[in-house]
Amino acid sequence: MQRVQNKANKRTDAISKYLIYILSAISIAVIFLIFIFVFSKAWPVIKGSGLSLVTSGGFDRQIQEGFYSADADPLLRYGLLGLISGTVVTTLIALLFAGMIGIGAAVIICEYSKKKFSEVLIAIVRLLASVPSVVFGLIGILTVVPLIEKLFVNTDMQIKYLDHFQMSGRNLLAAAIVLTFMIAPTVISLTVDAIRSVSNIYKETGYAFGMSKFRVIAKIILPGARSGILAGLILGAGRGIGEAIAVSMVCGGLGFLPIPSLAFINFLAPTLPLAAAIINKSEAIGSFSVESALFFCGAILLLIGAFLSTGAKAVEKRMRRVDGLEN
User: Fold this and answer.
1) 3-class DSSP state for residue 252?
2) Which residues 6+ apart lie within 8 Å of 275 measured at CB?
3) CA–CA separation, 127 vs 249, rounded Å?
4) For residue 280, what pLDDT band results from cuts at 50, 70 and 90?
C-alpha cells in the first residue's frame, strides 16, 4: 500500500514539474511574441529615422505632419529625444524624493513606532499603493498644478519665456511630484519588509557594543536590508517609467528638450514622457506613420523594463556575493 502511495506521489510530482515547465515556456513565448509584435510595428519608423530617432527632437510637430501625410508617402522621420529626456529626468527626480521619503518612513514604521501603530501605518501605505493612478492625476490637477502656478509662475515669466514654451502649472515639476507620491508607497512597503527581515541578533549585538539606536539603524539595519531597498527602488522606477495616465494629466503634453542655460526654469517647462505620449497622441493612431512612432515609444519602454529587470538581478547577485551569501 505504501509503495503504491509513493508511486502516486512521484507521478504527481512529475506531472507538476512538467506542468510548471510548460507554463514557464508559454510565458517566455508570450513575452517574445510581444517584443516581436511591438518591434515589427515600430520597424518602419526605425528604418526611416535611423539613429536620429533617439538623437533629435521635434516629436510634437512631426506627429502633426505624420497624421496629415499621405499613406502612399508617410512621414517616417521622427525625433524622440525630448520624450526620452522627459521620461528619464521625471523618473529620476521622483525616484530620488520617493527613495528619501520611503526609506525614512520605513525606518519610522519599523524602529520608532509601537507594533500596533506600525501595523496600521503599513496597512495604510499598502492601501495607497493600490490607489488607481487616475486618482493621483486628479489630485495633481486640483492641488499640485495650482500650487506650482502660485509659487513659481507669473505673467512676467510667461512673457519672458514665451519664445521657448508656454509656462503653466502643468510641467516637469508637477509630473515629478505626482510620480513621487505614486512611487513612495511601493518603496516604503518593500523597505519595511526588508528591514523586518534583518535578524534581531545583529541589532542586539550592536546595542551590546554600546551603539546608539541611530547608529544601529545606519550601520546594521539599513546595510542588512539594502537588497530589499534596492528592489523597492527598482520597482518604483519601473512604475515611474511606465506610468501614463496620472503623468499625462499634469505634464503639459509637450516634448520639450531641456536647455542648460535656463537652469531651474527647465523644471517649469512642459514635458512629455514616453508612456504619456502614447496616451496623449493616441487620437492620431489611425495614421500609419503615427502608429509606428507610438509603437516605437512602447518598444523603448519594453527595453527599459527588460534592462531594469536584468540589472536588478545582476546587482542583487553581486550584493549577495559581497555579503558572502553566494559563491
Assistant:
1) strand
2) 87, 241, 242, 243, 244, 247, 248, 297, 301
3) 22
4) confident
Of 255, 276, 296, which Cα lies nearest the Cα of 50?
296
Residues 240-249 have a mean pLDDT of: 89
Among candidates 257, 258, 252, which has minimal Cα distance to 270? 252
CA–CA separation, 172 and 148 (whole Å) = 11
pLDDT digits (tens, 9 = 90+) for 59-117: 888 888 888 877 777 788 888 998 999 999 999 999 999 999 999 999 999 888 888 88
For the record, the C-alpha cell of 37 comes out as 509584435
Q: What is the pTM for the complete model shown? A: 0.85
Distant-in-sequence, close-in-space partners of 121: CB < 8 Å, separation ≥ 6: 109, 113
DSSP code string of 279-298: HHTGGGTTSHHHHHHHHHHH
CA angle (162, 163, 169) in 5-degree steps: 35
Cα–chain center distance at 214? 31
φ, ψ of residue 170 to 5 degrees: the values are -90, 105
Evaluate if residue 326 carries a pLDDT over 60: no
CA distance 240 to 273: 10
- The dihedral region occupied by 75, where left means phi > 0, alpha psi between -120 and 50, and beta the remainder, is beta
- Please write the tens of the pLDDT for every residue from 115-146: 888 889 888 888 888 888 899 999 999 999 99
> Which whole-number Å values give the CA distances from 325 to 79, 164, 202, 224, in the listed order?
46, 54, 16, 12
Domains of the chain from N-terminus onward:
80-280 (1.10.3720.10)
Identify the three-state secondary structure at position 271: strand
User: Do residues 136 and 178 touch, judged by C-beta distance below 8 A?
Assistant: yes
Query: 123: which residues sit within 8 A by CB, 6+ positions away?
Result: none
Secondary structure class of 273 (helix, strand, coil): coil
Can you tell me the distance from the alpha carbon of 282 to that of 291, in angstroms, rounded to the nearest whole number? Answer: 8
Residue bearing cell 520617493: 98
